[in-house]
Amino acid sequence: MMTKNIMIVGVGGQGTLLTSRILGGVMQEAGYEVKLSEVHGMAQRGGSVVTYVRYGEKVAEPIVEEGQVDVLIAFEKLEALRYAHFLKKDGVIIANDQRIDPMPVVMGAAEYPENILENLGKRYQVYFIDAMAKALELGNSRVFNNIVLGMAAKHMQFTVEEWLGVIEKTVPPKTVEINKKAFMTGYEQ
Amino acid sequence: MYVLEEKEMSEKKVMLGNEAIARGAYEAGVKVSSAYPGTPSTEISENLVKYPEIYAEWAPNEAVALEVAIGASISGVRAMASMKHVGVNVASDPLYSVSYIGVNGGLVLVAADDPGLYSSQNEQDTRRVARAANVPVLEPSDSQEAKDFMKTAFEISEQFDTPVILRTTTRLAHSQTVVELYDREEVSDKEYTRDAGKNVMMPGNAKKRHLVVEQRMKDLAEYGNTAAINRVEPGNEVGFITQGIEYQYVKEAFPEASVLKLGLVNPLPEKLIRDFASKVKTLYIFEELEPVIEEQVRAWGISCYGKDIFTIQGEYSANMIRERVLKQELDLAPEAQVPARPPILCPGCPHRSTFFVLKKLGIHACGDIGCYTLGAVAPLSVIDTTVCMGASIAMLHGMEKAKGKDFIKNWVAVIGDSTFMHTGLASLENLSYNQSTGTVIILDNSTTGMTGHQDHAATGKTLMGETVPAISIYHMCKAMNIEHVVEVDAFDTKELERIVKEETQREELSVIIACAPCALLKGQKFPYKVRAISDKCKKCGACLKPGCPALTKNPDGTIHIDPTMCNGCGLCVGLCHFDALEKYEKEGR
Questions:
Q1: Phi and psi (nearest 5°) for B313?
Q2: Which residues of A touch B249 (CB under 8 A)?
Q3: Has domain A4-187 been given CATH number 3.40.920.10?
Q4: What would you measure as the largest C-alpha separation in chain B, in angstroms?
Q5: What's the whole-model pTM score?
Q6: Which ipTM value was assigned to this complex?
């Protein structure tokens, strides 16, 4: 198969690393070569963060470049827009319908764009969910990533059992059940 | 060389580059490791502690870390030090000398460069340092090689009696790829015998050793001509000489090309390079950062393309080759014009509180290296300078000696606890000795914050998890004859304001230790959160001034506090004149 390219974008502190590790785990267990690339350090402090996941028969570079992304998983809307040009023409966006104002917007030096997801929908297939609201319904705001991941999982060829198996091995033991529930919430949307 | 095929394969695992380096150290039989945290090198030490066979520690700075490793090596065991590229500058004093001395047990310095500046103050290339210090450099291209090259590095170190640098970059250190794991090879300790001619660097001895070093580098260059880590991958008439992560971009964009993949990137193998160059029509040198290979290749009279078409700044990519070598039109969608999202201090960060007070008082700060460097950006904009670890304190002193005491009455130096312990101490010693009247604020959040919470001598815990007596920053300042040393809760803005006013006006050296743990440290959560009461809000925006990301404006101008982001520090509550912000108890979790 052709190498598949996934990009996870969000705001530092939103937990992109955990999501990439679950993705990587699923792909590796399915027998693919997997390469991931993460960001640590200063950018993690509330900045725009990017994680790449690639899988296939043989993978060379660990990053995904402009025009090559199959699935863009965005934990925040503005970040979906910022990195949309990384998508292939038939690429898919899975977005958390959440707005986090960057400092220039909070300070009134810049405006947060209106109707981001609707406008992106004119060019790409966009699926979105208010994962934070759903996570709070489940009782823990921090599982919102797995709701978004559940939605993204529908656009990949792995089975629900494969996903849940890796989630079980990756998240802290006390949070396995709620994280599985979160994943299914997104998957069944 | 290790013959991997002969060993029983135990397991395959996806590993971070840094995790693989730690595994490589383990498999190579390393006994001692010392390091100072710095992105992108930190996770090496954090992974080394998984192996009880290795003694691993955080040192106060990189010079100390390398010196510890040198001591361990001379005593007769395999030892390593790890650090980020700018840490190598701090360690360069011992590095240049240990190059003359060589090793007893193998000695490896892992140096992590940061092309693209993800978390650094410059983009320097450790290969330049290594060439100046006459130290061989190995550079891996993925996690598997990161692990394997650690073993090779120790073999080269012992075979050629030299310290070896394993160089990585951010992209390699923080990518995860598959690694085959093997068992640890216990290396028996070497005997220690006194050898002052080799181990005591004074002029008479060093003169002789310098000749040995020059010959050693020639021998290593010869070794590089045939060593397995330098590999030719034959292809078409277009040739690339490349190394490190850049090799992957070549394979991605142009798998048909001929490639000379260098694993030993210093010294360079002349015969191998000449031979490769003679077999291709066009030669590209594909190396991030400095034109180290390119300059040598051109000096040998071989024509090539390099920095004339690729960049010195930033990371490389496969698209760079597609566009600049293959001349492909990539037909990329335009980038959307959107507001930037620069990194910011976290909600509940005690540095925000301190900077808010300084901002209010119109104070300038000589800054330092850490999360608090973010005090340079709006809306706080308090920090005027950032140079390197520990510079803040000495620079304030330089300003005073240049422009007089009055000039620095609205200036302070700000430095974190870990950075103070790293190199701030020596600077403060200078202020005391040379009679400064400056004010130094130590932002003591009880951890090395930016790199992800590492302990140091003033936290009372070691890398391996031992509890030890914490060194008191307060008492060290007092021991430097500084009379005015004040500890204050960083969130007590009123008291902090009073103290800062008093100490900056006082014509004597003073130290203010602004204490409050990092908001991200485990167990440091406040029991409250804050909410806004929209009926009472007068839309004045006073609470937005410290730039907490949890606070935003609603469309009607009132304040919204995101409950998932609010940490409950309460800094904003004290700024509201209309009681429109209130603390509430967090639900039990």
A1: -85, 140
A2: 60-61
A3: yes
A4: 82
A5: 0.96
A6: 0.94
